[in-house]
Structure formats: structure tokens, C-alpha cells
Amino acid sequence: MIKTFVVDNDRLRLTEDLAADGDRVVWADLFNPTKEEEARIESWLGIAIPTREEMEEIEISSRLYIEDGGYFMTAVLPAQTEADDPLMSPVTFALAGNRLITIRYHEPKAFKTFPLRAEKVATGCTSGDTILIGLLEAIVDRLADILERAGRDVEAISRDIFEARSTKASKRNRDFQELLKGIGRKEDLASSVRDSLISLQRLAGFLAHVAGQTKMSKDVRARIKTLSRDVLSLADHATFLSQKISFLLDATLGMISIEQNAIIKIFSVAAVIFLPPTLVASIYGMNFDIIPELKWEFGYPFAIGLMVVSAILPFWYFRRRGWL
């Protein structure tokens, strides 16, 4: 599908007829294009549209390059970011003269919100370079929102792990399995956003080089610098968030180990407490003819009392030492 936009009163307007408005089109958005649509754009602009396989290559030379007078920049962007498992896929931005061409096979939210805003408000997006900067700014804003939401979720997980539990029942009800799943989901999300920011950081550096070569306006170059600083700060925040998630993972595993050790300690103490009574019972259960207490009137109460005392003494000792 091809969406084309023209400038109308300093606003973007969607047009359906590329043949009639071809000279006025400043942005062509190719969403999951067919071979025929790719050929149509190539014949219109005289540049080669990268294939999906070429867009997915990870080397810098395949993502940032100049060809046939066009400047091609590819970044990995997330879509379906309402959940913790976003769909990551490359998006290519191509500047050809005064026009911007975007090629994508998924739908990041910025590609929905930015055209709507540019159609309603005069954003100064009147050429391919200004549209590209505005679109990248919308993408960075969206990534910032994702990181903010992930940060709030991580704080909630942190409180759930470290908050004081007033009762033993509340401690037992803490589901470490769900905590581990939540931590894993947040790490996947933070890692995906960090990968996207790294690709955008490289794109912004290449775009700054292009701006110097093509003599873009001073305002555009200033916006590119601001965009680079924003991406760098978000990348630092994503790294911090990943480090905090790793800390929470280690803390959760440590608490699981502590609870397991506490359970093992209870069984160990129980075994020690019942060991002396077992020894007393074993002694008086031996089949010898001469055991004085067997014919003693108070032999049975004496044996029972001895077993009780031998169990109480270790229990009292453990309580006194704070082991229980």
C-alpha cells in the first residue's frame, strides 16, 4: 500500500493520485509494498527501493548508505507497544531530492499519529527533510513513553519484592514465579527499546552528515542535534533500566534461595529435636532380658517423660539462639 502526502497551506494532505500529484508529493509511505508498487516508486524517483531482506541486514553499510543520489537510512522500530512483547522490524527512510520515502512492513504508532497531527496543525513539515525530522521526533517521543511505562512497572515490581510483609501469610502469598515472569518481560521490552535507540542514534549521526552535505537549513541541523541528544539520553536511561532489572532478578533469586533455606532449616531443626526421643525409644525397645526400667512401676512414665524432656531441651536451645 502506498500513501502519498502533499503540502497544503503548510499542512500535509493525503492524496490518492500519485500520477496527478506526483510533482507535489513530498512524502510517499510504502506499507508492506508489492513488487508492482516498488517498481512504480522506483520509476517515479529513479532510485532502487531496498527489499525486506536488505533492510533486515545488520551491518552499517547496508542500513546507512548513499545510492543514485538518494540517502537511505534504516532503523529498527517497535510496534504493538501496548504489551510487553513489541513487534520489532526495520523501517527505511530515503531522502530523494525534496521528497521522503518510507518503507516498512509493520505499523509503529508514530506512523499513525504524526500524519494526523501534520494534517491538522501547521508543523513546518513542507519538505522531505523537515517531514523526516518531525517523524523521527514523533518516534523518539513514543520510545520515551514506552520507557516511562516500563520504568513505572519496574518500580512496582521493586516495591512488591522489597516491601515489608507484616504477616507470615502475606510472605507465603508472594508469587516468585509471577515476579520472575514480570522481570523477564520488562527486560525483553527494555532490550528491544535499547536496540531501537542504538539504530536511531546511528541514523541521527548519518543524518547530521547528510545535512552538512546537502546544505540543509540551520533550523533543520539544530533539530537533528537536539534529536541526537534526546536519543542518547534515552539510550542511557534504557541502559539504567536494564541494570535495575538485572538487580531485581538477582534480588528475587536471592529471596527464593533464602526462603528455600528457611524451609530446609525447619526440617533440619525438626530432625534434631526428634532425634533424642528416637534414641530413648530405641534404647527401651531393645530385646534384652535385663532392663531395670521394664519391671519398674514408673518405668513407662519415666521413659515418656525422658523423651519429652529430650525434645524440649533442643527446642529451647534453638529458640534461645534465635534459630527459630
Features:
2 domains, seven-stranded mixed β-sheet, 62% helix, transport, 324 residues, Beta Polymerase, domain 2, cell membrane, alpha+beta, 15% strand, rod-shaped, 10 helices, Methane Monooxygenase Hydroxylase, Chain G, domain 1
How does this model look, in words?
It contains ten helices and seven strands. The chain has two domains: about 1-255, Beta Polymerase, domain 2; about 255-320, Up-down Bundle (Methane Monooxygenase Hydroxylase, Chain G, domain 1). Helix 5 (about 110-120) crosses helix 6 (about 130-160), helix 8 (about 175-215) packs antiparallel against helix 9 (about 220-285) and helix 9 runs antiparallel to helix 10. The protein is of the alpha+beta class and about 325 residues long. The protein is rod-shaped, with a radius of gyration of 35 Å. The N and C termini lie far apart (about 70 Å). It has helices at about 20, 35-45, 50-55, 60-65, 110-120, 130-160, 170, 175-215, 220-285, 300-320; strands at about 1-10, 10-15, 25-30, 65, 70-80, 85-95, 100-105. The model has no long low-confidence stretch (mean pLDDT about 80). The relative contact order is 0.08. Strands 2-1-3-7-6-5-4 form a seven-stranded mixed β-sheet, sandwiched between helices. The longest helix has about 70 residues, at about 220-285. Helix content is about 60%, strand content about 15%.
